[in-house]
Amino acid sequence: QEWRFVVEETQGQVQYVYAQEFADLVSEKSDGALTIDVYEFGALGSEVDQVEQLTDGVVEFAIISPGFTGTLVPEGNIFALQFLFTDDQQMNQDILNESEAINEHLAPLYEEQGIMPLSFWTEGAMQWTGNSELRTPDDFDGFQMRTQESPLILESYSAYGANPTAMSWGELYTGLQQGAVDGQENPIFFIADANFNEVQDHMTISNHNMYVTMTTANPDFYNGLDDDTRGIIDEAIEEMRERGFEIQEEQNNDFLSQIEDDDENPTEIYELSEEERDAFRELALPVRDYYRENGGDQAAEILDMLEQEIEDASGEDIG
Ligand code: 6CS
């Protein structure tokens, strides 16, 4: 058997390393009978093209970020809500692993659209970069913010007064360089590895949200597998939960110094205080109501349930 696995990142980046290790595990467990070829970002098109390749069965596996499926599965916009999850990434990953809201209620909505989530996982906390300082909501006034496709990500930045524009990350370096957009959000490893710091003067440690992605399979393919083969896939997915967390944690830790030490392209790094984060949190809260109303039939129920799960896990009132 030879299957295809497409990811949204390039060689060496978190999703690619994850997919390669997943492929190795599946090969080992099947004594070499099952082979998975990993396709890096750009090999088969844009992130949105890749969603279609999975639903069409052109590829068997894909890593798909909910940020690119917001119109297909409106309830999946939930991950665009800023300041919803905790600041503890390990706790967030545990919530993703165990959440009934996500795994029992949201996942089937993806499956109906031809995307079968096998696991939801974090690629780390996201930070802002800009060609100007981003410390208060006023700094976002009229700011041209690049985002992924999902309507709620755009809505979240509109709430800060920004002018968000959706764009593939394949065009983002040039977009920042030529001033088509002023800034963007991503985990530190990605900012550094995609060299966005070369074309940005400021980075704000905002931890305003975590980057969530999904390991997915084409449902017809997955459901058509015999029990033994499906068992191998499921085992490999389970083993990759912890590994995926380690891969992103390591890269996010290691790459900060690459940005700090790049003397040719200096970046001013500023960490928001809790008070400064509160000013954004306050503007982000009403976006949850927007999600409840516009995030599809099950949005309100899924968000209520997830909020409760986050409060139970963290022991904190999250609004
Ligand atoms: O900003 C983006 O669109 C990209 N960021 C990450 C961390 N992974 C892939 C995604 O397309």
UniProtKB/TrEMBL annotation:
Residues of the full protein shown: 69 to 387 of 416
Family of this protein: Belongs to the bacterial solute-binding protein 7 family.
GO biological process terms held by the UniProt record: transmembrane transport
Keywords assigned: Receptor, Signal, Transport
Species whose genome carries this gene: Alkalicoccus daliensis
Signal recorded as keyword: yes
Record's keyword annotation contains Nucleotide-binding: no
Protein name according to UniProt: Tripartite ATP-independent transporter solute receptor, DctP family
Recorded GO CC terms: outer membrane-bounded periplasmic space
